[in-house]
């Protein structure tokens, strides 16, 4: 199928020349951008969409999420708490998750992401309660395929329970051999190394306070044997830093150095508390910057500008909905911009740089060069924005308008792999009312059950 996006007002490409093209057409054939230019010739079978007065970007790439947390938003018991007490309180609810909870939680998060301009997302799932099926990530893969989002699943894990000095309760941790066996199963079943892959797999032990050093090394070896990427939380809070120093005699980044967890095949979530030497150590690795989560949990501010200058790959992520309360990617871009300026003032990243981080930057963090760019030969992952609302009146620059203006985060159109998935803010691939109803019922049942047990 061919699709022509006709007369786009402005296309922000993030290509190697940093081109911003005016009054241009984009021709898509199946799942690939085949031509960008003016007055493109087409045949009679090509579907034409008039994009006059619309702005086009490559789709946002979300590099850190916990999709199941969409079912655990606004739980009163954990509000106004920092990370460690917040986690301890939520583990009591999370230990009841089921395959249906994972499936519908994923659909909720995917819906929010797609409607706010995200075309590729990852997820970090690490909660596998005892006596529950081990195929929870399979449910995420099913949801991603049905809804039509490009998806990088990570096989998360926790092996260091409370009885062994870790943070999580023992009922949500697994033995290393179980973790590694399922990791290899998922890689063999789902990981697609091909260009334009819709599903990939990475390995993601949860954090230094919930997995053993031995598992970190075993996951590293398996990932590098299979040629896939590695991910974990790192340097998110001072509590984590103190835990690592007391247990291992190392700061979090130093621990990653010792374990061989540094390099272009590794990306970390948060990365807030680190020194100048550690920034240099992370050169070539990736970071998922999660502004809303970091603000809500009072974790701190990621030194994004300094990390970029040190050669670290930076991306933007929504993080789990229980610490963000939403999966709104467009809003996360706005907050990343504002938080960066709060920290760096007039030396902060400009609107173009923030949008590049959210698109091509995210692709680079995930190890991809086929998405995140509007160019011939790249994936047809395109988002169209309508800046004609009164909320943009008086704004003289579309780039700044995209980042700072507007009263909505619902995009005009989201195209993933050449298919229109969202139009006028409405998800086309599935019914969001049905998703909402079923997801909320499952969430209510889990929360009510846990509260009744107390």
TrEMBL record:
<dbReference type="InterPro" id="IPR011059">
    <property type="entry name" value="Metal-dep_hydrolase_composite"/>
</dbReference>
<dbReference type="InterPro" id="IPR050287">
    <property type="entry name" value="MTA/SAH_deaminase"/>
</dbReference>
<keyword id="KW-0378">Hydrolase</keyword>
<dbReference type="InterPro" id="IPR032466">
    <property type="entry name" value="Metal_Hydrolase"/>
</dbReference>
<protein>
    <submittedName>
        <fullName>8-oxoguanine deaminase</fullName>
        <ecNumber>3.5.4.32</ecNumber>
    </submittedName>
</protein>
<dbReference type="GO" id="GO:0102127">
    <property type="term" value="F:8-oxoguanine deaminase activity"/>
</dbReference>
<feature type="domain" description="Amidohydrolase-related">
    <location>
        <begin position="56"/>
        <end position="421"/>
    </location>
</feature>
<dbReference type="InterPro" id="IPR006680">
    <property type="entry name" value="Amidohydro-rel"/>
</dbReference>
<dbReference type="Pfam" id="PF01979">
    <property type="entry name" value="Amidohydro_1"/>
</dbReference>
């Amino acid at each position: 199928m061919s699709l022509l996006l006709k007369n786009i007002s402005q296309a922000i490409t993030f290509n190697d020349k940093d081109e911003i093209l005016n009054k241009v057409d984009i021709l898509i054939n199946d799942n690939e951008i085949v031509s960008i230019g003016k007055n493109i010739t087409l045949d009679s079978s090509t579907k034409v969409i008039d994009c006059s007065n619309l702005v086009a970007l490559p789709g946002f790439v979300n590099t850190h999420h916990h999709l199941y947390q969409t079912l655990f938003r606004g739980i009163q018991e954990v509000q106004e708490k920092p990370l460690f007490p917040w986690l301890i309180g939520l583990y009591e609810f999370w230990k009841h998750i089921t395959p249906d909870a994972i499936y519908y939680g994923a659909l909720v998060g995917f819906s929010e992401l797609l409607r706010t301009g995200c075309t590729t997302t990852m997820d970090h799932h690490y909660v596998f309660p005892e006596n529950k099926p081990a195929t929870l990530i399979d449910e995420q893969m099913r949801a991603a395929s049905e809804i039509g989002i490009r998806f990088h699943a990570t096989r998360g894990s926790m092996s260091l329970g409370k009885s062994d000095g870790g943070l999580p309760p023992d009922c949500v941790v697994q033995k290393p051999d179980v973790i590694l066996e399922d990791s290899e199963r998922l890689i063999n079943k789902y990981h697609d190394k091909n260009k334009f892959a819709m599903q990939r797999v990475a390995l993601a032990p949860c954090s230094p306070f919930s997995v053993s050093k031995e598992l970190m090394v075993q996951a590293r070896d398996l990932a590098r044997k299979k040629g896939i990427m590695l991910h974990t939380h790192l340097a998110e809070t001072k509590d984590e830093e103190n835990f690592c120093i007391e247990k291992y005699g190392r700061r979090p980044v130093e621990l990653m150095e010792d374990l061989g967890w540094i390099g272009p095949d590794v990306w970390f979530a948060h990365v807030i508390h680190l020194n100048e030497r550690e920034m240099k150590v992370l050169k070539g690795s990736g970071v998922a910057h999660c502004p809303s989560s970091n603000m809500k949990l009072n974790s701190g501010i990621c030194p994004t500008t300094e990390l970029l200058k040190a050669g670290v790959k930076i991306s933007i992520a929504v993080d789990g909905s229980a610490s963000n309360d939403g999966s709104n990617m467009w809003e996360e871009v706005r907050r990343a911009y504002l938080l960066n300026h709060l920290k760096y003032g007039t030396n902060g990243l400009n609107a173009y740089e923030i949008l590049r981080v959210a698109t091509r930057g995210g692709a680079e963090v995930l190890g991809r060069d086929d998405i995140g760019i509007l160019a011939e030969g790249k994936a047809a992952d395109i988002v169209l924005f309508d800046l004609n609302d009164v909320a943009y009146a008086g704004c003289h620059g579309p780039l700044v308008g995209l980042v700072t203006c507007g009263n909505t985060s619902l995009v005009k159109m989201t195209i993933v792999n050449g298919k229109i998935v969202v139009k006028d803010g409405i998800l086309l691939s599935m019914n969001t009312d049905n998703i909402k109803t079923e997801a909320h019922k499952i969430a209510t049942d889990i929360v009510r059950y846990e509260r009744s047990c107390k």
